[in-house]
Amino acid sequence: MDQKRTVNNVDSGNIRLRRQRAAFCPACGKIVELMTFATAANTFKTDTQDIELLAGTGSLHRVHNSQGRVMICSISLFDCFDNRRTRLLDSHFAEKASERWKETHSD
């Protein structure tokens, strides 16, 4: 059975570098898990537009899977969000938090 599995993973003498959920990422230099744009967004509680913007700027690596679908390299995704600065939800949040802090810390 292991031989059959090995044969299925070999294409013309070369190891297949693309599958539906994994592929070789040239930027990372290794085979990585792939994520859809929606899954990547859900993982970090953001929207797909944010993921598309990050992919467009090169912060996230785009890789085609075996079906030709453009997906996100999971290593670049986690690296990007691990090193990303925290952003406030909206400008009113900061103003309200500042007002509350002043109220609780006033003499």
Q: How would you portray this structure in words?
A:
- 17% of the residues are buried.
- The strands form 2 sheets. The chain has a 4-stranded antiparallel beta sheet with strand order 3-4-6-5. It has a two-stranded antiparallel sheet with strand order 1-2.
- Helix 2 crosses helix 3.
- It is built from 5 helices and 6 strands; from the N terminus they run αββββααββαα.
- It is 44% helix and 20% strand.
- The protein is an alpha+beta fold and 107 residues long.
- It has one domain.
- It is elongated, with a radius of gyration of 21 Å.
Task: Produce the secondary structure layout.
Blueprint: H1 2-8, E1 10-11, E2 14-15, E3 22-25, E4 30-35, H2 37-43, H3 48-57, E5 62-64, E6 70-73, H4 74-82, H5 91-104
Antiparallel strand pairs: 1-2, 3-4, 4-6, 5-6
Helix pairs in contact: 2-3
Which percent bin holds the helix content? 40-55%
Low-confidence stretches: 1-15
Strand percent estimate: 15-25%
Query: Radius of gyration from the CA trace?
Result: 21 Å
DSSP, total strands: 6
The helix/strand order is HEEEEHHEEHH
Number of helices: 5
Structure at a glance:
With 107 residues, the chain is an alpha+beta fold. It has helices at residues 2-8, 37-43, 48-57, 74-82, 91-104, and strands at residues 10-11, 14-15, 22-25, 30-35, 62-64, 70-73.
